[in-house]
Amino acid sequence: MKDNCLSNPAVHRLIELAGAERVGDDAVEELKKVLEEVAFFISKDAIELASHAGRRTVKLNDIRLATKRFKLNTFLTSNLSEE
Question: What whole-number distance in Å separates Cα of residue 62 and Cα of residue 80?
Answer without folding.
Answer: 27
